């Protein structure tokens, strides 16, 4: 019986850690920049676009601008994903979980 209470306490502690982690991820902002430096984007830890800035360079070709925007977005979301993975490792003590936690965030 004592072991069961210990497991319940650990579950409650883990729930609290995940709640804190969710807040941290929600409040984190990540920036990505295109290779040419023309486009900068900011995304949340969940990958939602928060801000986009484009320098004053005139693009003759919209495809080039679109490519720069996509590249900057991909970089920013990659940073957000790496951050989330590292925070999950911290929260679980690098213990593998039997399910994907990304669905909770």
List key phrases describing it.
alpha+beta; Ybab, Chain: A; 2 helices; 105 residues; three-stranded antiparallel beta sheet
Describe the protein in words:
The chain is an alpha+beta fold. It has two helices and three strands. It has helices at residues 2-27, 62-92; strands spanning 29-33, 39-44, 49-54. It has a three-stranded antiparallel β-sheet with strand order 1-2-3. It is rod-shaped.
Summarize the structure.
The protein is of the alpha+beta class.
Give the helix tally: 2
Describe the largest sheet. Answer: 3 strands, antiparallel
Fraction of residues in H or I helices: 40-55%
Terminal CA distance:
33 Å
Q: How do the strands of the widest beta sheet line up side by side?
A: 1-2-3
Q: Which consecutive residue ranges, at least 5 long each, have pLDDT under 50?
A: none
Shape estimate: rod-shaped
- The rounded Rg comes to 19 Å
Tell me the series of helices and strands, N- to C-terminal. Answer: HEEEH
% residues in beta strands: 15-25%
CATH architecture descriptor name of the domain at 22-91: 2-Layer Sandwich
- Broad structural category: alpha+beta
The tally of strands reads: 3
CATH secondary-structure class of the domain at 22-91: Alpha Beta
CATH superfamily of the domain at 22-91: Nucleoid-associated protein YbaB-like domain
CATH topology of the domain at 22-91: Ybab, Chain: A
Q: What is the typical, i.e. mean, pLDDT?
A: 80
